[in-house]
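A further point concerns the way the authors explain their paired sequence and structure data. Showing the layout once, in full, would remove most of the difficulty. For illustration, here is how one protein appears when written out as sequence plus C-alpha cells:
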Amino acid sequence: TVLPSRGMDLSSASYKGKSLCWRSATTDKHPAYFEPEERGWLRSFYGGLMVTCGLCSFGAHCTDEGVRLGIHGRVSHLPATNVSWDGWWEGDSYLLEVRGKLREAVVFGENIELTRTIRSYLGATSLTVHDTVTNIGYHTTPHMVLYHINVGFPAVAAGSRLVAPTISVDARDEDAMLGAADHNRFDPPTHAYREKAYSHTMRPDANGHVTAAIVNETCEGGYAVWVTYNHNELPHFTQWKMMDEGTYVVGMEPCNALVLGRDVERREGRLKFIEPGETKEYHLEIGVAEGAAALQALVAKCAG
C-alpha cells in the first residue's frame, strides 16, 4: 500500500499471506495529526514497510543553529502531487509503476522537491524505489535522508538474525552497549524492553551495493526480508532493534548521516548539503526470499 498523503511511503505489505513489516497501533494517520515537537513524530508513526525520514533533518530532536527540530523530519507527513499509476507490458513481463512528487518548503528557508517512482513486475518478489531530490530554491540547504524499513513478525522472531556485510558496529547509547554482542540476533517479545540502535559500517560489493536482510530459517522452510541500496548514495546504515511486546520490530535504515541529531552531524562534519539546482538520487530494492536455497543465495549476496 502506497500512501500519497504521507510522502508516497509504503504502508502495509505482505507476501503469500505473511506480513513483510511491523505495523504500529497508530494506524495510517492523516498528516494533519503531525506533531513536529521533540518526539511527537511517534504519534503518527504507523510502521509499515518504508517510512522516509528527512529531507532536511532526521534522528534525535535537537536545536541546530537556533532551529528547533523534532525527530525524523517532515517528509513523511507531506502530501504528494502529480500522483499517477500505470502498468504496461515489456516483452513477457508486466511492469507496475506508481509516481508522485512532494515538496518540503518554508518561507525564508528550504525549497526541496522529491520525485518518487515505485516499480515492481507482476509476480515479482521485490519492488524498487527511485528517488530524485532537487533543491529548487536559491539557498544551500542541509540535506539528511533515512529510509526507515520496518521488519516485523514472522521475519523477526526468536532466533532470527540480521545478515549484512558489516565491518564494524557502534552502539548509539548505554542501552545499546548492553546488547552489542547480540545486536544481530533477536529475542521473543520481551516485556519493558528498551530500544537499541546501532550504526553499521558496511562493505559494499564490486558494484557499490549493500544488501542486508532479516533472516528466519525456521519459518516455513526459510523466510527473509531484504534491502539492497547504493552505498555511494547512502553511506550509513542504522539498525533499530525493538523487542518489546506490541512494538516488536527491527529497522533496517540506509541513510546519509547518523541518527544523533542534525546539530551533532554539523559539529562532527558529517552533515550533507544540497546546492541550488542540485539533484541527488537514491535507489533501493526491497524484497522477500523463501526456502532454504533462496536463503542460502541471499546470505551469500549479503556477504558482498
